[in-house]
Amino acid sequence: MPSTVPVWILLAATLLVAGVALVARSGQETDDVDTRLVTLGVVLPLAFTALYARLGSTSTSHGSWVTAMVIAVAVTVALAWRLPQHDARFILAGLAIGAVSISSISFSSDWTWAVPAVGAALALGVAVGWKRPMPQLGMGLLAVTALSGLLDAALTTVAYVFVLPLALGLAVASCMPVAVGAVASGFVLPFTLTLFSVSATFLDPVSQEFGWSTAPLEEHGPAAVTTPIPLTVLAATATIVVAMSTIHLKRVRTAVVT
Question: Would 88 disulfide with which of 80, 132, 188, 208, CB 3.0-4.6 Å?
Fold first, then answer.
């Protein structure tokens, strides 16, 4: 059975976030609990689960899916807006990473060729983001990756194999320093926000009837790209743009206040 990019990309993200947790904001006392982060950590997974069960399951309609997606993004942005700037950036980066899972790449049994390339791209993103934080550039690359689902299979393959790990490392590393609670909450977003990674692939009527995704699968060399309908790709891209815009507005507001 072919391996898919979201699985090992998320495994790489797990290691990356674990490292982030080790360098979380210095000076934070272990008993200094930010209730806003606790609220976010509890509310978001519950909200995403309820939206998936009610509006975004595998039998969803286009209208229901869009409604669920808009509500999920609005709730995430609203809760992130109440957080300190660095923590809000990390949460919004998690939202963007969840959205980019709208398309996926499958490899043949011999996909070891991709490991060095992905590792190098991820390491480069982390190194650049650590030395010169550029979260919006990282998220911009995530938006380009998501939007590539509308393009030729070869371009989508390049985006998801090479650009995605670079963008992931850059976006996450650029959010340092960040509170441990924000790390935990931001980390679960791509896993709990299944409206993009699961529900979107079932919006095709045939998929709903037979219970599996019939999204187009186009082979390109040793890899195959799976993309959902254009509506969902555009919605995922818009979600990332909203996250980027919120980061900018949050930074402007913080600068004005101070």
Answer: 80
